[in-house]
Amino acid sequence: MPMLFPSPAVSIVGRHDSGKTTLIVQLIALLASRGFDVGSIKHHSHKGFDIDIPGKDSYRHRHAGATETIIAAPGQMATIKDVDGEMECADLVAGMTGHDIVIVEGYRKSGLPTIEIMRAANLADQDTAAAFDKASRAGIPLGFDFVQEGRDAGERDFALEAPDESDVSNKMPTASTVAIVTDIPSARAAADRYGIPAFAMDDIVGLADFLQVRFTRPHVSVVIQAGGESRRMGRSKATVPFAGRPLIMRMVERLLPAADELIVTTNEPHNLTFLQEEFPDASIRLVRDALDYRGALPGLLTALQSATHSYVAVVACDMLFASPRLIVAESERMASTEADVVVPVNQHGFEPFHALYRRETCLPVVREKLAEGDKRAQAIYEDVSVCEFSQEAVLAVEPMGGCFINVNTPDELARIERDFMGD
């Protein structure tokens, strides 16, 4: 199932013949070797390019008049489509979900974080480095229109000296610049004045480390808490039938698009092995409860201990309409706020079992609270950084709501099933 997570993207920019493609190829290869899923976009500035081979069937389809052609083969697919004008880079990235990072070549004005290349062997890069250095010494902010200032100022001190306007004007580092790659000492010095990291042209490892820490998408372990026999339900909620199948199958299908790793915690793993047969490509892990007594906090302990990734989404298996989009939104909120817990809150209070937890900070607190005899999941909230995800924010993600509806009895399940099936 395609993942819902938007892909973070970084653009690598520079003037013509600055070495962008060489750098990007090396960077993609290194990140991929580290296990990251890397997407890429290449900005082609000239109208009318063709990626198909004349004489091939797909080429003949397009040149016969097809406005969109899909070429499909085992393990690969390509789409060639006519569009009006030029698509925005943001729209292209938005269509590339689930990557750990997308490396973009070009699209300087896209608004993406950019990495600027300046190479000593390129005369245009030398001009740019000189202007960059001069701006940094004068305390001029990044993104300043140096060439226009020079025209307006006439003989003012800061006017650029005979710039190659075709390659320097509008091709300077901007407020979106997050790093410089250069072998020009003055450019490195200027970057230091602006507080921007600078990397040598051959420091692919250092640049990859920078991207890995700053921009790659945090992976999420989704943990479905299936428990075991429910006294009020009269049997295991995980295997109770819903719409003709075990309820846990519905939950797995709903949450897979938000899961880099899917774990089902249960005290009856032997009864749920059918999940691994039904979803052979999902690599579902069945994990026995860590403690021999029930409770919300013991369940949270099992979830956090079993997870591989730092971000852990914990969802109860009886939340019939649990939202993968909400998990994605919680992940984005955690990344932007650096909170330890992102938890939905409404008129009923917190929803700790459709929340996201940061494993390394929450797990020690869970253990401490359990040692003190507490069994409440919310017991940890006073000792970690909590970001409340408001009801308005939930509805912005899921306008129909219903994410937190759960079932406890056969009558409740039957009523929801009737509504679900439209009977």
Give structural attributes.
alpha/beta; Rossmann fold; Spore Coat Polysaccharide Biosynthesis Protein SpsA, Chain A; 2 domains; 8-stranded mixed beta sheet; 6-stranded parallel beta sheet; 15 helices; 35% helix
Fraction of residues in H or I helices: 25-40%
Judged by helices, strands and strand pairing, the structural class is: alpha/beta
Mean model confidence by pLDDT: 86
In CATH, the architecture of the largest domain is: 3-Layer(aba) Sandwich
Q: How much of the residues is beta strand, in percent?
A: 15-25%
Concise synopsis of the structure shown:
The chain is an alpha/beta fold. The chain has helices spanning 20-33, 57-63, 89-94, 123-138, 146-153, 165-168, 185-194, 204-214, 247-255, 274-278, 296-306, 324-337, 359-371, 391-397, 410-421, and strands spanning 9-13, 38-42, 68-73, 76-81, 101-105, 114-118, 177-182, 198-199, 220-227, 229-230, 235-236, 241-242, 245-246, 261-266, 285-288, 311-316, 341-346, 349-350, 354-358, 386-389. Strands 9, 14, 15, 16, 17, 18, 19 and 20 form an 8-stranded mixed sheet that branches. Strands 2-5-1-6-7-8 form a 6-stranded parallel sheet, with helices on both faces. Strands 3-4 form a two-stranded antiparallel sheet.
What does this structure look like?
The protein has 423 residues and is of the alpha/beta class. The protein has two domains: 217 residues, P-loop containing nucleotide triphosphate hydrolases (Rossmann fold), CATH 3.40.50; 202 residues, Alpha-Beta Complex (Spore Coat Polysaccharide Biosynthesis Protein SpsA, Chain A), CATH 3.90.550.10. 35% of the residues lie in helices and 21% in strands. Strands 9, 14, 15, 16, 17, 18, 19 and 20 form an eight-stranded mixed β-sheet that branches. About 4% of the residues have low confidence.
